[in-house]
Each structure stands twice: as C-alpha cells, then as structure tokens.
Amino acid sequence: MIDANALRAVCLGFNGATEENPFPRHPEVSTFKVGGKIFALTSLDVAPLTVSLKCDPELALRLRAAHPEVVPGYHLNKRHWNTVSLTGDLPDRMVRELIEDSYDLVVASLPRAQRLLLDWPGERR
Predict the structure, then answer these.
(1) In the predicted model, what is the mean pLDDT of the chain?
(2) CATH of the domain spanning 4-117, picked from 3.90.1150.30, 2.60.40.1220, 3.40.720.10, 3.60.20.30
C-alpha cells in the first residue's frame, strides 16, 4: 500500500514536478504541480490517505464503476478528476499509473516549449 511518503516520492519523481501548500486556511493540503498546473492534490497527514488526480473523462467513469476506491473528485470538476483512496485494494502499480496519467494529461496541455524543457516522453523533438 502506498503511504504518504511514497505518494510524495512518486509525485515528485516526475520531471519538473513541485510540491506546494497554497491554501493558507488548509496548510495540510499538498498540491503537486508541473508547469504551474496541479496534477495531484492530497492531504498527506490525514487518514484515510486519498489523492485527487486528473483523468480522461471516459476512463474516469470506467475506473469509478470498476473500483470502489475511485470516486468523483472531491471539490473538483467531477468530469475530469477522481479521488482515489490509497487504503483499499488498488495495486500500487495501478496507483502509480493513475498518477502518471494525471501528470501526462497536464503536461500535454502545456505549451510545446515547456513540454520540451521537461523532456517529456510524449513530446517529439
């Protein structure tokens, strides 16, 4: 099971990823960003540990139908965001893939110059 330290490590393991705590009224909320845009949102010190991740809308619906640990994004656009409970039965590999998919969706929306600077595998030179 992925714990808070592992979640932070996975999120920060991507090129250009940063962690910020931008909400003064909620300092426990960590956002993980690339190019100034959020790809993961979590409260690392809160149990149960969850992470909100950007997701393709069609895939989001399939994941929610197949996995009780995946629900519409909490306080987010429910069409594009899922909140994933990390205390359930989702395999660690699947959680890592969901985080990577979220990162990739955000990077894909960045200007080409930023994508090139990130050395993103999805960008052809």
Answers:
(1) 92
(2) 3.90.1150.30
